[in-house]
Design goal:
The protein is built from 7 helices and 6 strands. With 212 residues, it is an alpha/beta fold. The chain has a single domain, classed as Rossmann fold (3-Layer(aba) Sandwich), CATH 3.40.50.1470. A 6-stranded mixed sheet has the order 2-3-1-4-6-5. The termini are far apart. The model has no long low-confidence stretch (mean pLDDT 88). This is Peptidyl-tRNA hydrolase. Keywords: Hydrolase, RNA-binding, tRNA-binding. InterPro entries: Pept_tRNA_hydro (IPR001328), Pept_tRNA_hydro_sf (IPR036416). GO terms for molecular function: peptidyl-tRNA hydrolase activity; tRNA binding.
């Protein structure tokens, strides 16, 4: 049986690291753990990519609301097989920093980066893209109390606090790595149908202190 490729794409901005770029932060940490350099491997104007075993990491070089352009360029260049899986990393302010959530992509998406990706995916040739697609939310919350659209825009562009960086490094990164291994090892249809069950499995592991 051929090993499925897991494509890990992060939506983000090409600006200094902040909450809104949590997906890229985790992607770069994965690249370091895999000992691959996303700055000196296969690249285009809109993305850079590097592969470790069956994991292909893709870093967007465009702004958040144009993330779909980078994803489209990669998919057209690489032409993933139907057996492959696409996992999109994004920042999730509904989750506490350190928490992770796996979900199928839905339409419409409220997150600008996800919405851009979804728009592109909906228009792509079905013969070009038949992979299973997931989104993996990286918690950046809790969001400020009594926040509004203006204050939220400012907050998501703010830097993480030192203790939050520790949560990302110690908990989020380990969880993401384990989620990706799970997706890689499991029958893809069972993962697609049971993302809620998968999240519960990892929630119980967290409760047991396996990620502290």
């Amino acid at each position: 049986m051929d090993v499925r490729r897991i494509i890990i794409f992060a939506v983000s901005n090409p600006l200094p690291m902040n909450r809104h770029s949590a997906g890229k932060y985790i992607l770069l940490k994965l690249a370091k753990a895999f000992d691959v350099d996303l700055n000196h491997h296969q690249s285009s104007k809109s993305y850079t990519a590097a592969t470790y075993e069956n994991f292909t990491l893709v870093k967007s070089q465009v702004y958040m609301n144009e993330s779909g352009k980078a994803l489209q360029s990669f998919l057209r260049d690489q032409r993933p097989s139907p057996e492959d899986s696409l996992v999109i990393l994004y920042d999730d302010f509904e989750l506490k920093t350190g928490k992770i959530r796996l979900s199928p992509m839905k339409s419409p998406e409220s997150h600008n980066g996800l919405s851009s990706c979804q728009s592109v995916l909906n228009k792509m040739d079905s013969n070009l893209l038949k992979t299973s697609i997931f989104k993996l939310g990286i918690g950046i919350g809790p969001k400020p109390k009594d926040s509004n659209k203006l204050t939220m825009s400012s907050w998501v562009l703010s830097k993480f606090k030192p203790n939050e960086i520790e949560d990302l490094d110690d908990m989020s990164l380990r969880l993401v790595a384990d989620y990706l291994d799970f997706i890689s090892d499991e029958n893809i249809q069972s993962v697609t149908d049971q993302t809620a069950r998968v999240n519960k499995i990892f929630a119980k592991k967290i409760q047991r202190g396996e990620y502290t």
